[in-house]
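User: Okay, second chain of the day. Same drill as before: sequence in, structure tokens out.
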Amino acid sequence: MLGFVCFMGPGLFNALNGLGGGQLDAMTSANSNAAVYATFAFSAFFAGSINNVLGSRLTLLLGSTGYALCVGSCF
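Assistant: Same drill. Structure tokens below.
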């Protein structure tokens, strides 16, 4: 399951990002991408500690839930 998530995650993100973010204005799409990447950078800094405390299973559950929220709100 972990391999499937790691395999499909970047491809799905690139496919959705290639759609242009669903915005009519290019600046709005660029701003939403900047917010997504800033969130990725911030959460990646703490991801190892969170994984050590919660465990891999719960960390993957939280990450996939967060990804679904990101796709629903940004794209």
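The radius of gyration is 14 Å.

User: Thanks, on to the next one.
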